[in-house]
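agent> step 3/5: call structure_predict on target 'Alpha/Beta hydrolase protein' (Aspergillus keveii).
agent> reason: downstream docking stage needs a structural representation; sequence fetched in step 2, passing through unchanged.
tool.input:
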Amino acid sequence: MQKAMELQLNQGGLEDVDETEIEIPMRDGHQNKAIVFKDKRATNSRRPLIVLVYGGGFMAGTIVQLSFVAQPLARLYGATVVSVSYRLSPEHKFPIPPNDVWDNIEWLSRNATSLGADPLAGFVIGGASAGANLAAVAIQKAVKTKLSPPVTGYWSFVPFLLEEEIVPEKYAGFYIARKQNACAPGLDDASIKEAIKNYQFDVKSPDFSPFNDPASFSGLPRTYVQACGLDPVRDDAIIYAKTLADHEVECKLDVYPGVPHGFEGQFTTLKSARQYRIDTLANFGWLLGATPEMQDIENLV
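tool.output (status=ok):
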């Protein structure tokens, strides 16, 4: 996991995409850092707002980690992209991370105009791995509390959302990846157990998993989910996508066969890594209701 994050951090940036560091206040007075990405060349008068939440097992990660996604999104869609942070375990255990992410999103929804964004032009939240967990929890809270402006889309890459005791009975037979891929590279059973030990979450809490608040599945925004075939949390993503479909939520699912959790950072020369990047950038367009030119996407990839 750490190697994948280091490789992501070393990927080059885009000229003319400004990066500004800000601080966002939390409910207890703590200030969390965030980076705002904006393309200086953008001509649209209304910039959509995209919020990204990095992963790292709730115990590692940094706001620059998803820059390789944030920069091309700012360029392609003229969006204001904000990579937010949260306090990490084991120093800051559950529920501090989900509280921090929610506080970030709530603050950004109120202060978007000061950052040059207009959430009414699109308000998408995305996350990877543990960040996808925190984003999923926040989005269901946004629906439940009627956050205004409303969230209009969710990007979920290799989300950790389930433990065996909260898998919906309907999909219990699909939940096999945790054992099937227990020794996979990138993320294995030992890594998951370490994350659980440090995070110390309440498995039945809606602040841990959206599956603990099933009523809030209805009314969720359109969602794009990505999973990896050789990933212990593969079935978390697949079952999540199936459950969204059950609740008539617009959802797309892509699965990348034979690759592990974090493959896009560890094995960047794989064709599937390039396809992952193309899919991600293109489907943010779907989430935003925009249709970019494929050549523009390929040039950025």
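agent> step 4/5: record observation. The domain at 2-300 is CATH 3.40.50.1820 (Rossmann fold).
agent> proceeding.
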